[in-house]
Amino acid sequence: MPPGRGSSMLLAGKNALVTGASRGIGAAIVAAFAAEGANVWALARTRSEAFEATLAGLAAAHGVWLKPLYADVSDPAAVSAAIRLAMTDKQPLDILVNNAGAMAQDKPFQLTALEEMEALFRVNFFGAVQLSQLATRWMARKGRGAVVNLASIAGINGGSRLDYSASKAAIISATKTMARELAPLGIRVNAVAPGFIQTDMTQALGQQVQADTIAKTLLRRAGTPEDVAQAVTFLASDRAAYITAQIWGVDGGML
Amino acid sequence: MTNLEKYLNAFVTALEVSPAEAPALVYGQSKVWDSVGHMSLVAALEDAFDIMLEMDDIIDLSSFDKGKEILSKYDVEI
Fold first, then answer.
1. How confident is residue A7, by pLDDT bands cut at 50, 70 and 90?
2. For residue B51, what are the CA distances in angstroms to A37, A79, A83, A134, B64?
3. pLDDT band of A159, cuts 50, 70, 90
4. Which one is the CATH code of B3-72: 3.30.70.20, 2.40.10.220, 1.10.3720.10, 1.10.1200.10?
5. How does pLDDT run across B5-19, given as a tens digit for each residue?
6. Residues belonging to chain A with any Cβ–Cβ distance to chain B shorter than 8 Å
7. Inter-chain Cβ pairs, chain A and chain B, closer than 8 A
């Protein structure tokens, strides 16, 4: 059913910006948003015909528009340019999903150069903060909006890589502070904290690490990008209108 | 609507003041122009003039007159 025609779709008629949109959890979020009636600016780092073909297919299937944007979120000038380009569409922005992220190399912090840690923070933290600054000003024009940040269970429990888990802990803290500052402007801010999710990034962890991690979850399986996308979709929707400053674990029960 | 009218209207709607009060406002010296009001004002100005202000200019936006000076950098003459 086309969006905005009395459908029960969660995001009918909403406009969203999703970062890290070309693969993994980001791609699943874009697909879920389209299926729920949202139009999406899908931001990816690298231009790709396959990515653009996927967007075109989803758009046609669901009767929405999905537009690619390209920027490295660790490059402030590129991020600004991408937002400016999206704004030329003269549409309001209702939803921002800060999904773009990088994994750290698996090594002790004593063996990690500060420059490596800074580079990771530029993607996982500062990129998300800058996008939130720009996007929430855009949302403030209409006095409404929702931001969903992608944190990690490692940001809550700590992880084997200091820079990664610390960057995600920073996102969790930023989520709560942003929620406090933006509530008067009608903007909600929440985060999801995925556990072990089957993506290209986590496949690089090795079989034994994957098996050990799954064994620690109550549900005894790895999560899927779609599991995360469903939680993000709900938090982005008006059904979550009274939910802000929350960090939702999507981790199969990692106690 | 002239640019001055659009500019004044941004203050009136974002900060919920009368047109007569707006020109004397200074950031931080009025209950209505606090940090929340500031972001509402920035959003209203960006919307009114179809611009995206740089962070330095958002920080420098401290009075009605200063705002005019800042907007001139974006080819908005008031």
1. low
2. 29, 16, 12, 12, 18
3. confident
4. 1.10.1200.10
5. 999 999 999 999 999
6. 80, 83-84, 87, 133-134, 136-138, 140-141, 181, 184-185
7. 29
